[in-house]
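chain below, 219 aa
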Amino acid sequence: MRILVAEDESVIADAVAEGLRRHAMAVDVCYDGAAALERVTVHRYDIVVLDRDLPVVHGDVVCRRIVEAGGETRVLMLTAAAGIRDKVDGLGLGADDYLTKPFAFAELVARVLALGRRARAALPPVLERAGVTLDLPRHSASRDGRLLRLSPKEFAVLEVLLRAEETVVSAEELLEKAWDEHADPFTNSVRVTVGTLRRKLGPPPVIETVIGAGYRFAG
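prediction:
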């Protein structure tokens, strides 16, 4: 999933981002509302983890703009305002979920995964094809019962390919969905990651290269 963390407390923002990256998510970070609005006009995010009390442009305004723009981006408000009235107001702005500080990181991950399922067409939390099983809540992968030790990027690429079923996914789309905004589009990161993923999956091959178009899970 592609996530934006908009939080003015840099320590919290960076810690949340790093934790989500360990769960194979591509995460961008910004520290004020103006930057958040700029990011959401450039990138297609599955989820925005949004601090309500952002400087420059208030989080309520950011939330309202995201909702007004339509699309499938989900908003998880992350804020110290814990009163019932605060939650009602936040959800009334169009936020999809509301988590108060302090929070347990495991709960944040669970809520992000749940929102991610809602941001796409309904799919099960466990993806299976050609003997390959990807368990998203447990962040585990296997093939024919053999545990696969995948890096976060390999896990993310495999998820994108499985979700696409047998349609072709371009290298640009993989960069958009599995890497963050600092990824260099001219590097061979996608090719290298797909290559190591293929080796770990083992024979028979299930990831097909479509010349000039991208990659397809063809098992």
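The chain has a mean pLDDT of 86. The longest strand covers residues 74-79.
thats it, cya
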